[in-house]
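Trying the structure run again after the queue cleared.
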Amino acid sequence: MKAALMYGPNDIRVEEIDKPACPKGGFILKVMTVGLCGSDIRNLTCDSRKGNYPFIYGHEIVGVVDEVDSEVSKYKVGDRLYLFPGSYCMECDNCISGHSENCSNVEEGVAGTGGFAQYVAVSARKIELGGIYEIPEDVSFEAASLGEPLSSVYACEDNAKIGYNDVVVIIGAGPIGCFMSQLAKIRGAKTVIMVEINDSRLEMAKGFGVDYTINSLKEDPVARIKELTDGVGADKVISANPSNAAQAQSIFMAKAGGMVVFFGGVPKGSLTELDTNYIHYNNLWIKGHFGASYMQSKQAYQLAISKDFPSEKFITHRLPLDKINEGIQLTKTGEAIKVVLLPNEE
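Done. Tokens:
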């Protein structure tokens, strides 16, 4: 089969390798669509494996069951499936408390990588743990693949209780920021303000429920947000980018008693300097967010494939697997909102 193998930072080669054997108690999925995620790009452009190469990334996986082990009765050849990459035990204290995204027994490598290929093996353990959802016949594979990037966004806004009449600031107009703004409007937010340093991304963001855009290189975003909110500030501020400076500035965009969410991961080892006196005297709530519980992942997937979610607006580029490097550049430059790869198309 064809697969995109990472041999080191920025060294991704599409090669012919052996198709995986069908695992005992599992099945082989023919990958029809796999999304190119920001975390994939970060991993592919740095020494993410510490020299342990080659490696196949890709976790936004949807496809068709190609082969099934004789022990499997739940799935059959031809089934259209979406694989949520998280695999949680549902037995530890975190899972029982409703936060399976913090599972202390999380399984690695069960369905979280390997998608940049024509086929992936799905183990008996993944079937046992769950997070495999059927794709209706009238839903495209591309739309279904948005279930994964939407899951963390959905969980974030669910946990932050974004809702009716909220003023929401989103810092970062990348694919995730656009998901954030669209979902905030679906959840009933009154005003969505997007802060970004790339004018082309800001222009694209206007199509995803954004009411006001601010280029923070050209004007003071804090002053502008205060102006737009009659001096009050936003109810919720989400820093959806990998910037320490954005995190430090975000607290001044929120109203007294508001919430600031650190969604985007910053470079490992870096520290963000926060004015804790300002946080203290303005009663701000600071929240970190990562991942989604099983319940939230299912709800996000159901939204992604519903008529209420404009999946066609998000997917700006469809490319064969051979053009994965082109997809990375399109995303990094901001020309693309969402790139999906089609491993079984030329």
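Residues 2-150+292-342 form a domain with the Quinone Oxidoreductase; Chain A, domain 1 fold (CATH 3.90.180.10). Worth checking whether this holds up in the mutant runs.
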